[in-house]
Specification:
Layout (H helix, E strand, L loop, with lengths): L3 E9 L5 H9 L17 E7 L2 E7 L9 H16 L2 E7 L6 H13 L4 E7 L6 H14 L5 E3 L8 H11 L17 H17 L7 E10 L5 E9 L2 H8 L4 H18 L3 E9 L7 H6 L10
Parallel strand pairs: 1-3, 1-4, 4-5, 5-6, 8-9
Antiparallel strand pairs: 2-3, 7-8
Helix pairs in contact: 6-8
Length: about 300
């Protein structure tokens, strides 16, 4: 039996559907999905099997024009993920077409694209008419020599099987990189922190855009098979702490309940989750926070 294995980098603008596609391909929720842009910070990898091939998805942060240290580190991580991958898939939203951001990505792909396997996935195809889709496909392929083009709806799963089969045959021959039952290479502590951060993002909407982070401080395996998980939510100001806690602690309780339920379902066993909120004014400038998120602090230098 000839096995194949390799890395697939999904790149595109924020909110293009990269996290949704990763989860669709893997069949489990390994990458947080919210309607807020730039929610993916670390290079989360989901592992999917297709026949004798093992596909390792590098779910990169959305590519955008960076302004702050965290932004710059995220963009560096995204291009780093693309540079290391065996196959690159550019995701473009059908209804948004070729934006300024897509133009920038196409230019960068021309720089790194020599001899690389790069495919195009047009996502959210249910939002536009077929003639718009065909025109967009032609326009994009005129601008860059993609190996293949796929019409998909990552959310509904349309076209995802075809894309996964194509990716499987394009990976290099070789032994699998991960055990068969492993779906992500992130430590559970980080996956748990991401789940809580997703719930905070959904709950708080515009109130705390990117000025909080979650860390799993302690993870205890208990004799009864359950786990006790202690997490700290770091915010930058006292006022933010009040927003996260909510009236009589209602907000943080609701976040804790939602995160605990999802983590319990994900692990298939009982989880006791405890959240603390701490003010840390300069967390965006602390190298340890970047390490926790799988980012390189040095990449954030201007």
């Amino acid at each position: 039996m000839t096995t194949r294995a390799g890395f697939v980098a999904l790149i595109g603008e924020p909110n293009a559907g990269k996290s949704t596609l990763t989860n669709q391909m893997v069949g489990a929720k390994v990458s947080i999905v919210t309607h807020k842009v730039q929610t993916t910070r670390a290079r989360i990898r989901g592992v999917a099997l297709e026949g004798d091939s093992q596909l390792v998805f590098v779910d990169t942060p959305g590519l955008f024009r960076p302004r702050r240290r965290l932004d710059r580190a995220m963009v560096a991580a995204a291009w780093g993920g693309a540079a290391d991958a065996d196959v690159i898939v550019l995701m473009v939203e059908a209804h948004r077409g070729i934006t300024e951001g897509v133009e920038v990505i196409l230019d960068r792909l021309k720089e790194i694209g020599e001899g690389r396997k790069i495919a195009l996935a047009i996502n959210k195809i249910d939002r536009v008419k077929s003639e718009v889709l065909l025109a967009l496909t032609k326009n994009l392929n005129d601008r860059f020599p993609f190996m293949d083009t796929f019409m998909i709806s990552a959310e509904k799963g349309h076209g995802c099987d075809t894309l996964r089969k194509w990716l499987a045959q394009e990976l290099p021959e070789g032994p699998w990189l991960y055990p068969e039952d492993q779906i992500a290479d992130l430590p559970m502590r980080m996956i748990a922190a991401e789940m809580t951060r997703e719930k905070l993002t959904l709950r708080l909407h515009q109130e705390l855009p990117y000025q909080l982070t979650v860390e799993t401080e302690h993870w205890e395996e208990r004799k009864d098979g359950s786990a006790r998980v202690d997490q700290i939510i770091y915010v930058m100001r006292d006022g933010h702490k009040g927003i996260v806690l909510g009236n009589k602690g209602e907000t943080v309780k609701a976040v804790s309940k939602a995160a605990r339920e999802e983590l319990t379902e994900f692990l298939g066993r009982k989880v006791h989750l405890f959240l603390q909120v701490k003010v840390r004014p300069n967390w965006l400038e602390e190298s340890e926070r970047y390490s926790e998120m799988g980012l390189d602090f040095k990449d954030g230098n201007a």
